[in-house]
Design goal:
five-stranded mixed β-barrel, three-stranded antiparallel β-sheet, binds zinc ion, DNA_rep/recomb_RecO_N, OB fold (Dihydrolipoamide Acetyltransferase, E2P), RecO_C, 2 domains, 9 helices, alpha+beta
Length: 245
C-alpha cells in the first residue's frame, strides 16, 4: 500500500537518472534518511528539479510504499536555501561536513527527530551568525556521536570511576573510552587530552558556554571524534568535505 506523506527534509545529494529524472537523498523529519526519484526534474521547466538542490531545506510531498527503496517525490517547496552558507567557503565546508555525516552515517528509514532538530539548528546558526563555522561544527559532531550511539562518558574514568574533571591529563583508547591519568599508565593510549583541552571538549555541549577556542584546538577535537567514528564504522574513513575545501 502506498501512502502520501508530507515532511520537512534536507537535500543531501542529487544525481541524474535516465534522460529526464533525478534521484536525491534526503534527511527527513518523519522518515529519517530516504532516497527519492523526481520524474522530469532534468527539464529546465521543472520547478521541483530546481528546488531539490544540495543543501536546501524543503517541504516534501512523496508517495511512500513499504518495501520500495526509492520513493516517488511529487512536490517540493523551499523552506530555506542558506544563501550566506553557500557564498562563504568556510561556512560551506562545515555545512557540507554536516550533510556528509547524515548521508554516510545515518541508517535509512530510521526516524530520529532530535537529530533532525539538531541539524536544523546548526545550519540556521551557520547561516545567521558570525560564530566560527568550525566551532559550530565541533558542537555538532559531538552531538552527532551521542545521537548515533557513540557518545563518550566524560564525567568519570571508565576504569576506576573517579571524576575526570581534576584528574590531570585524560587519555582515550577505543576499548575503554576515557581514562584518568593513573589508569592510563597501564593501558594503551591512542589520544591524550590536556586538562584544558578536555574541559573545552566537554564545554562544547553546554548552552551559553563561555569557553573560548583556538582553531588548532578545534581541529584536534574534530580529529578525535573522527577517529572514534572511523573505529566504530567499517566503511567510514573520515570526513571528505573537510579535506576538499
Ligand atoms: Zn581511572
Amino acid at each position: 500500500m502506498s501512502q502520501i506523506i508530507k515532511t520537512k527534509a534536507f537535500v543531501l545529494s542529487k544525481l541524474d537518472f535516465g534522460d529526464t529524472s533525478k534521484i536525491a537523498n534526503f534527511y527527513t523529519e518523519d522518515l529519517g534518511r530516504i532516497s527519492g526519484i523526481i520524474k522530469g526534474a532534468r527539464s529546465p521547466k521543472s520547478k521541483i528539479g530546481k528546488t531539490v538542490d544540495l543543501l536546501n531545506y524543503v517541504d516534501l510531498v512523496l508517495y511512500k510504499k513499504e518495501g520500495r527503496d526509492i520513493q516517488i517525490i511529487t512536490q517540493a517547496d523551499l523552506i530555506e536555501y542558506y544563501p550566506n552558507i553557500k557564498s562563504d567557503l568556510e561556512k560551506l565546508k562545515y555545512a557540507s561536513a554536516v550533510i556528509e555525516l547524515l548521508l554516510r552515517l545515518t541508517v535509512e528509514n530510521d526516524q530520529h527527530r532530535r537529530l533532525f532538530i539538531g541539524v536544523e539548528k546548526i545550519l540556521q546558526r551557520m547561516e545567521d551568525e558570525t560564530t566560527q563555522p568550525i566551532l559550530l561544527f565541533s558542537m555538532f559532531i559531538k552531538f552527532f556521536l551521542e545521537e548515533i550511539g557513540y557518545g563518550l562518558e566524560t564525567d568519570k574514568c571508565s576504569l576506576c570511576q573517579k571524576s575526570l574533571l581534576n584528574s590531570g591529563n585524560v587519555s582515550y583508547n577505543h576499548e575503554h573510552g576515557l581514562m584518568c591519568k593513573s589508569c592510563s599508565e597501564n593501558h594503551l593510549v591512542l589520544f591524550e587530552f590536556s586538562m584544558e583541552l578536555f574541559n573545552k571538549m566537554v564545554c562544547l555541549s553546554q548552552r551559553n558556554s563561555k569557553c573560548s577556542y583556538k582553531e588548532n584546538e578545534l581541529i584536534e577535537i574534530i580529529t578525535f571524534f573522527e577517529r572514534v567514528l572511523i573505529y566504530h564504522i567499517d566503511e567510514f574513513q573520515g570526513i571528505k568535505s573537510l579535506k576538499i575545501y
